[in-house]
């Protein structure tokens, strides 16, 4: 039963951080992947508040492998730049960092840039951190609109944030920012940890869901399909029934995959190929 098109599977380079960019791109071709969600970790790309790597060079390299970049994902968990920074200097640096990310997204011909809520100190009023996150996302949405880019907001796990970690948090932030260029990204790991379902998200957001981080989980772990407890066929049926036409980002972050990521991407694609 055909439930998905091959080009909807968006390979990610985050678990290739110990390998060269060319190795990652070659591995995607070998695995039968056609689309890329590009993670901007410094081994493969440089992005900071003042500058970023030449997008023409990156685009040419990706296209030389007959691949297409569909989503741009600035690193925002391991770096100091985040969406709810408390110190004014770091807030401003973060704003410039993500602004450069939006500009790079546009230069690369992508329409979507990933974002999240960031996090606040656990010993401060959560609402103060929420205000900073909302302010940042509103500013960035304005910049994204000017550049022809849409931001895709994902929820995080409680270990990663104390702000947007559930569907209801996402709904609140989307409604409060209330911007045409801030839409929704469903992360199946955060979703699973929160005890939610894909249908819950489609019931809440419908066509405002423009991207997914679509991976297996236990529910923790951003796992290769077959290594967790999610039902891939059921998930794909839910996508199809709700008319989802976006991409399925393979945000595979468990360190068990870092030594030999190419073999795991091939194994992952074999699970998807049953439904193509």
From TrEMBL:
<feature type="domain" description="Xylose isomerase-like TIM barrel">
    <location>
        <begin position="29"/>
        <end position="259"/>
    </location>
</feature>
<dbReference type="InterPro" id="IPR013022">
    <property type="entry name" value="Xyl_isomerase-like_TIM-brl"/>
</dbReference>
<dbReference type="Pfam" id="PF01261">
    <property type="entry name" value="AP_endonuc_2"/>
</dbReference>
<protein>
    <submittedName>
        <fullName>Sugar phosphate isomerase/epimerase family protein</fullName>
    </submittedName>
</protein>
<keyword id="KW-0413">Isomerase</keyword>
<dbReference type="GO" id="GO:0016853">
    <property type="term" value="F:isomerase activity"/>
</dbReference>
<dbReference type="InterPro" id="IPR050312">
    <property type="entry name" value="IolE/XylAMocC-like"/>
</dbReference>
<dbReference type="InterPro" id="IPR036237">
    <property type="entry name" value="Xyl_isomerase-like_sf"/>
</dbReference>
């Amino acid at each position: 039963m055909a439930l998905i098109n091959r080009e909807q599977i968006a390979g990610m380079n985050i678990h290739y951080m110990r390998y060269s960019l060319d190795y990652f791109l070659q591995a995607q071709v070998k695995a039968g992947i056609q689309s890329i969600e590009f993670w901007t970790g410094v081994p493969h790309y440089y992005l900071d508040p003042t500058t970023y790597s030449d997008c023409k060079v990156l685009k040419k390299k990706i296209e030389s492998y007959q691949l297409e970049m569909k989503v741009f994902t600035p690193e925002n968990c391991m770096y100091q730049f985040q969406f709810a920074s408390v110190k004014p200097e770091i807030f401003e640096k973060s704003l410039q960092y993500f602004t450069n990310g939006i500009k790079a997204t546009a230069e690369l011909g992508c329409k979507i840039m990933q974002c999240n809520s960031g996090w606040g100190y656990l010993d401060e009023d959560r609402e103060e951190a929420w205000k900073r996150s909302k302010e940042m996302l509103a500013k960035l949405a304005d910049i994204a609109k000017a550049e022809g880019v849409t931001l895709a907001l994902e929820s995080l796990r409680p270990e990663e944030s104390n702000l947007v970690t559930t569907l209801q948090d996402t709904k609140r932030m989307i409604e409060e920012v209330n911007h045409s260029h801030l839409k929704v990204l469903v992360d199946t790991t955060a979703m699973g940890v929160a005890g939610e379902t894909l249908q819950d998200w489609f019931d809440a957001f419908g066509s405002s869901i423009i991207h997914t981080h679509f991976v297996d989980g236990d529910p923790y772990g951003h796992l290769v399909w077959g290594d967790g407890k999610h039902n891939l066929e059921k998930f794909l049926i839910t996508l199809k029934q709700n008319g989802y036409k976006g991409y399925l980002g393979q945000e595979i972050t468990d360190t068990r995959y870092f030594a030999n990521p190419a073999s795991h991407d091939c194994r992952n694609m074999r699970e998807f190929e049953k439904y193509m």
